[in-house]
Amino acid sequence: MASLVVKVTRAALRLVAAQSPQKAGELAFWLFTRTRSTKPQSEKERKALERAKARMAESETVQLVIPGSVIATHVFRPASAAATGQKILVVHGYRSRSDHMVTLADALVAAGHTVVCLDLPGHGASSGRALHLGKAVEAIDAAWRQHGAFDAFVGHSFGGPSVMAAAAGSILHVPQRRPDRIVTIAAPSDMNDVFRWAGKLMGLGAAAQNAFERQVLRFAGRPLSEFRVDRMMHDLKIRTLVIHAEDDKEVAYTNAEAIARTGSHVRLVKANGFGHRRIVSAEPVTRAVVEFLGEAAKEAEILDLPLPSGQQGDSVAASQSRRPRRLA
Question: What is the structure's pLDDT at 319?
Answer without folding.
Answer: 30
